[in-house]
Design brief:
Layout: E1 4-8, H1 12-23, E2 27-31, E3 50-52, H2 54-62, H3 66-70, E4 74-76, E5 78-82, E6 88-92, E7 100-103, H4 105-117, E8 122-125, E9 128-134, E10 139-144, E11 149-154, E12 157-160, H5 167-172, E13 179-194, E14 208-213, E15 218-223, E16 229-236, H6 249-259, H7 270-276, E17 280-288, E18 291-292, E19 296-298, H8 301-304, H9 313-330, H10 335-367, H11 371-386, H12 394-399, H13 405-422, H14 435-446
Parallel strand pairs: 1-2, 1-12, 2-8, 5-14, 12-19
Antiparallel strand pairs: 3-7, 4-7, 5-6, 9-10, 10-11, 13-16, 13-17, 14-15, 15-16, 18-19
């Protein structure tokens, strides 16, 4: 009989990992501190719609559930920028047939739990808050919120998929040689809504991720199946333009009419949403090692929480699942070896995408409307078309490939050097498909 495995956390990563382990025949117990979201109205206001891309789809395919998830996902082929005058500019994310997929975090989580529970060897237990882990005996200590009592559960292996503020990680932080850091952005976020129109249609192009870039802050909108858009305002907590300055109705409306004028008529519940939905924070968490005594392993946000600006938080967590599943094949389910190897190799990639996510925040809020940035995107797409074996834009490496995040980060820095030279070519903004660009690229490629 195969080992018993405990997963702390029934979120996206924990639920998907339960499916993959169940397919291998393990007995899985999943403990979650929250009520069952499929039965309880947990309230909204803290969501950033998710963007499924290539890395995430791979893990779903390995679990055999990708077609189930496609039914609740909507393709977005590019960014639609809104300037202060309401003018629109579209930027394709990749090639003509490439898209990222908008999906509701809550609906995806519910679907993954349903699919996990369809396996007889998976059991979910809700309202069971992880307190700590006994690192000596691989025991999970819980508090039963229903019966108000403490519980202790044992397993052969425990996976900590309990989020950015992981109780499992908190226990490991007390062990020798465990390194941990967290850093918050000065920005927070607030969820808002653009509902369907009175005729029941989308109020905006639904095949785009909409961005209102405004320098130190921005608004984004992602489509939902019910024809609405989930909007997220990213804004500093403090300062001249900040959440602390937006308290009264008049202040809120003045701010939105000044910076997001074309969105205001589409948001009839703007004031209600703004005042009722909380301000949430954005944190990056790095730690190492991710495993302890080859019995306990951190994964997903518990080991590498990142800010959402590359759309890779969920995708990187799902990639954890697919890498572990591949290692299970490679090492014939020798979990001691898998834990060591995963904890040795994966953190470097997690750190890479964490840094890239911060970089993309600056790009989204400051640069997507800048003419030279747009020119760089055009030249990058042209070079990719001409030299598909020698050049891939950074966004495509991260979003539409399985290139290691760390390698993408390295290549992204090198591409910055390339485009610094290309954009310095005289009259480049008027004539960029020319031999001089090719010469600069060839020199750059040969020095790789």
């Amino acid at each position: 009989m195969k080992e018993k495995i405990i997963i702390s956390g029934a979120g996206l990563v924990g639920s998907l990992w339960a499916i993959l382990l169940a397919k291998r025949g393990y007995q899985i117990e999943v403990y979650e501190r929250r009520p069952d979201m499929r039965k309880s109205n947990l309230g909204g206001g803290r969501s950033i719609n998710l963007a499924l891309s290539t890395r995430g789809w791979k893990a779903l395919q390995k679990a055999g559930i990708d077609q189930d998830i496609k039914k609740i996902a909507l393709p977005m082929k590019g960014r639609m920028m809104h300037d202060t005058q309401g003018n629109l500019t579209f930027q394709a994310y990749g090639k003509e047939d490439q898209a990222i997929y908008s999906v509701s975090r809550g609906e995806l989580n519910k679907k993954l739990m349903d699919l996990a529970e369809s396996h007889d060897n998976v059991s979910f237990y809700f309202n069971k808050r992880t307190l700590k882990i006994d690192t000596n005996n691989c025991d999970l200590h819980l508090f039963d919120e229903d019966n108000k009592e403490k519980l202790s559960k044992s397993a052969d292996f425990i996976f900590g998929a309990d989020g950015a503020f992981s109780a499992i990680r908190n226990s490991l932080q007390k062990t020798p040689l465990f390194n941990y850091s967290q850093s918050y952005l000065e920005h927070g976020y607030k969820e808002l809504t653009i509902p369907a129109t009175s005729s029941g249609d989308y109020a905006l192009d639904h095949e785009s991720l909409h961005i209102w870039p405004r320098g130190q802050f921005m608004l984004i909108a992602l489509p939902n199946l019910d024809k609405s858009f989930t909007c997220t305002l990213f804004l500093p907590f403090q300062g001249e333009e900040s959440f602390e300055k937006l308290k009264k109705d008049k202040e809120i409306l003045l701010f939105f009419n000044k910076y997001f004028k074309d969105a205001v008529p589409l948001m009839p519940s703007l004031l209600e949403d703004f005042k009722e939905n909380p301000n949430s924070s954005l944190v990056t968490i790095k730690c190492n090692p991710w495993q302890y005594k080859e019995k306990i392993l951190l994964m997903g946000d518990a080991s590498h929480a990142i800010v959402p600006f590359y759309g890779q938080g969920m995708n990187s967590g799902f990639e954890d699942c697919s890498i572990l599943d591949e290692m299970a094949d490679e090492y014939q389910e020798d979990w001691a070896t898998i834990f060591r190897q995963f904890s040795k190799t994966r953190p470097q990639d997690a750190n890479g995408i964490a840094d890239l996510a911060i970089r993309n925040f600056i790009e989204m809020r400051d640069l997507v409307g800048d003419p030279m940035f747009l020119l760089r995107k055009k030249i990058a797409a042209w070079l990719y078309e001409l030299y598909p074996n020698d050049f891939m834009p950074l966004y495509s490496m991260v979003t539409f490939s399985h290139i290691n995040y760390y390698d993408a980060w390295i290549q992204g820095n090198r591409q910055d050097e390339l485009f610094e030279k290309i954009l310095a070519i005289p009259n480049i903004e008027n004539d960029w498909k020319n031999d001089r660009v090719i010469e600069v690229f060839e020199e750059w490629k040969n020095n790789s």
